[in-house]
Amino acid sequence: MPASFILRVAAPLLLWVPLLVSFYLLVRGHNAPGGGFVGGLVAASGLVFFAIARGETAAIAVMRLSPASWCGVGLLLGAGSGVLALFDPASGYLTHRWWFPDLPVKLPLNTAFIFDIGVYLVVIGTITAMFFALVAED
Amino acid sequence: MRQFLIVAPILIPLAATAVTALLWSRPAAQRFVGLGAAVALFVATMALLAEVISGGMLVGQMGSWPAPFGISLVVDHLAAAMLAITGLMGLTVAVYAMGPGAKERDRAGFQPLFHALLMGVTGAFTTGDLFNLYVWFEVMLIASFGLLVLDRTREQIDGGIRYVMLNLVGTTFFLLAIGLVYGLTGTLNMADLARVAPDIENQGALAAVGVLLLVAFGAKAAVFPLFNWLPASYHTASMPVAAIFAALLTKVGVYAIIRVFTLIFAHDQALFGPMLGIIAMATMVVGVLGAASHYDVRRILSFHIISQIGYMLVGVALMTPLAIAGSVLYVIHHIVVKANLFLVAGAMQQVGGTFALKRLGGLYAARPLLGLAFLIPALSLAGIPPLSGFWGKLVVIRSSLEVEAYVLAFVALAVGLLTLYSMVKIWNEAFWKAKPETAPEPPAAWTMTQRIATFTPIIVLCGVTLTIGLWTEPFAAFSITAAESLLDREAYIAAVLGTNPVQLTEAVP
Question: Where are the domains positioned within chain B?
Fold first, then answer.
């Protein structure tokens, strides 16, 4: 059964709102409730909704890469965020580094955030992969 | 360098999983990356083994969080040996998987799943934290389920669902045990647990945790009576998958049993020793009888995995240095031999067209080299001197005689004889008897590359079996060192926690 006309038209809007919220959750997550996992779930829910409205093919077109590739990028980011620590013999893998640039606004840059982005991407990839597999017609 | 070496066995398969997942739509590139990663893993694990032999135990604290709070990675002799053998298996099976059927497998996602499985296995061998071990068990379970249903046939899905259901029950018990032990001690770091375990007032509750862990690891290791998932699923998997499963999955359970019961529950040996001894004997007997009743090569081999697990548990049951050394030697020998038998079975199917013994025949006349490649691991499995299995069995049986466990020694000997019966059965039916009328047409001829990909791993593993058999001295010496370091709990605790551990757990009543 095709989705209703209203739903199909509203779909892009209903994709971007969860994505924005998910970014907020991702960035906020460092010192407050939130983070890559929840953010990823919210973003994935937006994509899943888009797939219900416009179909799986359209959703994959929006994602550009296949869900498996999203997982791959996420895993590489997550694993890569800890590699810097290996060059310091005194610290263990995944010891995160912090950098506070001298700017008028407070901007704590750190490798832990890269790890969080990795989690975010893996969650999006996994959830959408599962959903597409469940609704696939063959 | 040491910090890098200790995480390399986890990071290399992780990167391989990620990159092969990125190359989802290009199976040929995936295969190339997968092979490269398998070579890298092999080199890294060998370097790690060399480092542990020369420089002793390696400990890494992830994220530089001090020991009982963060996740510790600990590689001692046993873990290093298991990692090295995982590297060898990863490489040989990765090469073997380039044989017949490679295209279909890679299109179905073999490469990312295979490396995810290797990551789960190496993670489980490396970790020094009970909850982290649970996480690696889950990684392994997810990856192995994907590998098991790779061809998406009805038979595979049926086997896969049984596999997942029974394993989920096992991991649920694991989670229950983790919750209980955290409530009892306030820590999940294995070294910290080992430190506080003997002084806990409520030893009854701790023993309950031990039993729960035994159920969880036993289900993973396929011991009696928790082995049902193994014969229900292994014979449905495609051959490279079955080989890597047979080599590594159950052995992770055995490793976890050895680790936890030598480290945390060693003070309660009066309870767990006899329990493990009985389980070991029952596992040996049931497995070998199951194998004797079957006429499908894959099913026979699957039941023999179960039977051999019994031998590996003898060490933990007796807890003498010699017995544990026997277990270590047995695990190392068994992984090589068992994986090789599955690889040979795959080649037999490629030549003879079937796995059913009744319909096979005349393979020795057609392929004498294949016959030889079968005989070496098969006789080694049965324990014929001078092959590797003989030395493993010798040490296990001698150690049980030393502590006057005569029943155990007798069962081990009798099971060895029955193992020989099963192997001779395969030899007689598949290789020796004339080709029967009902023999199926073998599948289409294979290319030279496929032959090389199939036979190189088999020959290499035969070589390893012969090396362990004929030049046992270094392997035996290594096993004894590994056993001594397993029994030296104080050294393990000091290495992980430092000489002056943070005394948080004292606050817990």
Answer: 2-507
